[in-house]
Specification:
With about 230 residues, the protein is an alpha/beta fold. It has 7 helices and 11 strands. The structure holds S-adenosylmethionine. One of its GO terms (biological process) is polyamine biosynthetic process.
């Protein structure tokens, strides 16, 4: 058998910030579409080879008819945001910590990021989603979607632990209209988070089975419905 042709890896953009290295890379293999990779805080955060769960996060909200005003925490490679736009969201607020990533999206460094940034329904905010949620007005959003870490047990930044604390989860729910949805993406089932959310409102666990190479993975998404009145 001939040796497989080498895979090329190109750095599209790179920045060194207070939280470490941020990089956007493109991986090419013969005969396949290019794959984009995002490095955050010096560590591999995600790639575009398999984005079913990132899109599913958006689809679950769309299927439940919550496509008015929606907040997404964590831009990443833009797949959750793009799926919301594809589903017909009316207003989308995307909150992203890394200013360079927002700039790369506005510059259209990948087709997907450029499409999200250019959509007139979407506003990109450069902010820590924890602070953003603390300062936001209450009672206006149809859904708040959080995908800033691999989940509470695998944080991209240590400070993000606060996001999964009971007061911050309650604060996120307080942004919602009654019946609105808080959706949290996790790298696997996370019973502690499920319990914390269940104390705040009816909570559904959706496991999204995904194959990455030879590995079968079950990502988990938690969906909490805002009760009529939430004490932030
Ligand atoms: C795994 S990616 C999100 C993937 C995204 N759902 C998609 O479809 O491509 C996580 C993103 O959250 C951002 N992030 C991490 N901590 C954050 C915070 N505290 N506030 C806002 N964004 C944050 C990272 O910079 C990164 O862009």
């Amino acid at each position: 058998m001939p040796a497989p042709e080498p895979v090329s890896l190109t750095t599209l953009a790179r920045a060194q910030g207070p939280r470490g290295e941020l990089a956007l890379r493109e991986r090419r293999s013969p005969g396949t579409a290019p794959v984009h990779e995002l490095v955050v805080n010096g560590a591999f955060a995600m790639d575009s080879a398999e984005v079913a769960s990132e899109r599913r996060l958006a689809e679950l909200v769309a299927e439940r008819g919550r496509l008015g005003r929606v907040v997404v925490g964590g831009l990443g490679l833009g797949y959750t945001a793009a799926a919301l736009l594809d589903a017909g969201v009316q207003r989308l607020e995307v909150v992203e910590l890394e200013p360079d990533l927002v700039a790369w999206a506005r510059a259209g460094l990948t087709e997907q990021l450029g499409r999200v940034a250019a959509d007139p329904r979407c506003t990109l905010h450069t902010a820590d989603v924890v602070s953003w949620l603390e300062e936001a007005a209450t009672g206006w959003a149809d859904a708040v979607l959080l995908d800033v870490d691999n989940g509470p047990d695998f944080l991209i930044h240590p400070d993000n632990a606060r996001l999964y604390s009971a007061p911050l989860l309650a604060r996120a729910l307080a942004l919602l209209v009654p019946g609105g949805l808080l959706a949290v993406w996790c790298q696997g089932r996370t019973p502690e988070l499920q319990q914390a959310l269940t104390r705040l409102g009816p909570t559904e666990e959706v496991v999204v089975p995904v194959r990455r190479g030879r590995h079968a993975i079950g990502y988990a998404i938690y969906l909490t419905t805002a009760p009529a009145i939430v004490q932030p």
